[in-house]
Amino acid sequence: MSELTLKSHYSIAELLSFNLNGIPQAHKNVIEKANRENWESQKRSGRGGGLEYALSSFPKELQDEIYSKFTESIVQRKPTLPAVKQIDLDDVTSKQRDIADA
User: Fold this and answer.
1) Can you give the residue ranges of every domain in the chain?
2) What is the pTM of this model?
3) How many C-beta neighbours within 10 Å does residue 23 have?
4) SS3 for 42?
């Protein structure tokens, strides 16, 4: 599965990359399903054009599956820890040494 981000609109390629059970696995069949179920769409900006379909117009089961996969992807992400700053002990003042030794 590619990086799943929660957006208001998705292209057919994005939907297929999420490996959803609620849609066919062929590009052409997803377009037919979108047309048959009157999914709201808008022209995709950028190179290649095409359409993006509104998440809010998907069937409830498909919306729930996308939300569930998004939630799973958030939980599985590991937080990035801040880098530890190395301090040269030769640059520490005597006052700082006294505090560290206390």
Assistant:
1) 1-77
2) 0.69
3) 19
4) strand
- Of 63, 14, 26, the C-alpha closest to 1 is 14
Q: Name the token pair of 87.
A: 């301090």
Strands 9-10 and 41-43 come out as: unpaired
User: CATH topology for 1-77?
Assistant: Arc Repressor Mutant, subunit A (1.10.10)
Bridge partners, 41 (sequence order): 53
pLDDT at 76: 83
DSSP state of 14: H
**Number of residues that this document lists for the chain:** 102
52 touches 15 (CB < 8 A): no
pLDDT tens by residue, 51-88: 999 999 999 999 999 999 999 888 887 778 888 888 88
Q: For Cα atoms 54, 57, 61, give the angle at the middle one, nearest 5 degrees.
A: 115
37 close to 50: Cβ distance less than 8 angstroms:
no
